[in-house]
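Listing S7. Sequence submitted for prediction.
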Amino acid sequence: MTIYTLVCTKPIYQVSETTLCMMGFWNTPQKAQLPTMAVVVLLVLVFLCTNGVESRKAKHVDCFQYSAISCRAYGASLADFGGVGDGTTSNTKAFQAAIQHLSQYESQGGSQLFVPAGKWLTGSFNLTSHFTLYLHKDAVLLASQDENEWPVIDPLPSYGRGRDTAGGRFISLIFGTNLTDVVVTGENGTIDGQGELWWQKFRKGELKYTRPYLIEIMFSENIQISNLTFINSPSWNVHPVYSSNVLVQGLTILAPVTSPNTDGINPDSCTNTRIEDCYIVSGDDCIAVKSGWDEYGIAFGMPTKALVIRRLTCISPFSAVIALGSEMSGGIQDVRAEDIFAINTESAVRIKTAVGRGGFVKDIYVRRMTMHTMKYVFWIAGDYGSHADNGYDPNALPVIQNINYHDMVAENVTMAGKLGGLTGDPFTGICISNVTITMAKKGKKVPWNCTDVAGISSGVVPQPCELLADQGPEKIGACNFPEESLPVDNMQVQLCTYRGNYL
């Protein structure tokens, strides 16, 4: 924080950006701009030097800065709409009223809703365009356990049904559709799904509808979800779907490793998505890349493409760091993952598909992964199954090609690779280079199992199966990683300011 030192007849005062913000000199939506220093000196001297002790008794005004893809002209606190952060009072109507009120500023510079410190019990609420939801570092959104506060909505068109049950699904805690320019961020505030009740209903087969996610934004563009902690989601945590230009950054996602389907981040039929600097402990895949399920995904035909994943830490003993599928019937293309650390995780990058899926997974690039305690490093499964219904086309075969892995290290591994394509439909263009795998003491005596795949390898220990033909050490750079950037890398954040009480 920049400190401005002013001298007057009383002791020297140091005035921070926050003080200037409270005085109205530091405002949105423009980047913070100061008046001339002469005006600042004059006004601050009047404010501090003449008021003396009384100035320290000024009413507290929330004022802070944060990074976002867009800044806003208007703002309000949830407390302004009757919100009560006691952990027991429902704030569903307060959230809905606040966002409904703020939506009037969509075309006037946008708006932001500040959630102060406290425990804010709430059911589902919908976002609006040109809008920022900001959580204080000591703010906790507690998801209501009253099903009446969770409306039921239609299944996703690319899935044809809910993931847990046939038919509809409970709407997500934070939901938005057909939006543009939305930011959900904070000072690492917490969104607590209170998922135990939902997990028990799932295990007992008592669900009438598919469990809710913590945040789902669909048919939208220019989305930022950042600097928050998600815990105990009823099911998936973060689900951008049918959207473009999505930035997911600086999230901490935590769930018991035995909790069902608590995937971390699931980009689904999205274009230009960037996921970076996230820490995930999950009962399912840390990142699950999807694009629709069987005949429904094929008909909808919206792939996930141009996806960047970097600087990710994952713990998931029963699932993957990154899963491609199994719902991939719309296709997955151009995924670039790098600088990833995995601890006690079932597999590194897992491709999951089956007869009837159709679609494709191609142009996948992974480099610089470090792994400790893994069941599998490489896992490709063409026999995943799990169909939406019996209406899938048995002639819809997936295409898996141009899969590149290099510069990877793993230790305490049970099996180096389990790669299984489909008879008559081999998975091709697999390239693995410069990979060192240290097997566990009780690891498989045959570290590789390969069927119906084709590709090459170079500088891999232990030596892969014959279907990944060894090219010798001189080809250690054979597996490429695109050096040109994707459009999503051009998504930039700027410094924004919230100053309370200016609506």
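Caption to Listing S7: primary sequence and predicted structure tokens for the chain studied. DSSP finds five helices and 34 strands in the chain. Confidence is low (pLDDT under 50) at residues 1-15, 22-60.
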